[in-house]
């Protein structure tokens, strides 16, 4: 049995404030703030994984490897989403987008990028509010995650790949080369849970992921940290 995607872990200087921004942007329930200062959003829609904000030691310094593509049903809806994000403390940013591109690139108060996608985008036509978790990555990265999560490849063309859960929800995409050089660990990281409790299940799943192309970065017995073929960190934990 493969591990399942349970959360997207996001580093933030102020986890509770960051969680509130995204909760209000998506009109989700208030975040749960735990004693360690982390904050968790549980989406009420088909997103399929939680957003867990954890304390960062340093502020963001470079473009994230992952970002959300937020869908719009109409031009009015896109304009309203942009205005709403700005009112919540977001801002416009330039990541090299072209003038003719119709999506709007914004950042949350901590500088985490996201796109508000234009209406009529055919690639995200059947997706929900979060259309995609869009990622910088190679074709090998897409192949790895398709096998790791046992999700089908829904796009594989010109070294660009995408996977999607059979249950629906956002696509996870990788844009192919060129790949941005990274100088710090990823602030957004996938978190997986083994389908089966106990140390034996955790060891077996770690071995399976390594055989698929991952490597172990931190071999903590309770929650190892691994790196994908492109070197992106992700978390693995035992089921309950």
From TrEMBL:
Superkingdom, taxonomy of origin: Bacteria
Residue ranges constituting the Glyoxalase-like domain according to the UniProt record: 10-117, 136-236
A Pfam short name: Glyoxalase_6
Transmembrane segments: none
Gene3D superfamilies per UniProt: 2,3-Dihydroxybiphenyl 1,2-Dioxygenase, domain 1 (3.10.180.10)
Name assigned to this protein: Glyoxalase-like domain-containing protein
Organism field: Frondihabitans australicus
Upper lineage: Bacteria, Bacillati, Actinomycetota, Actinomycetes, Micrococcales
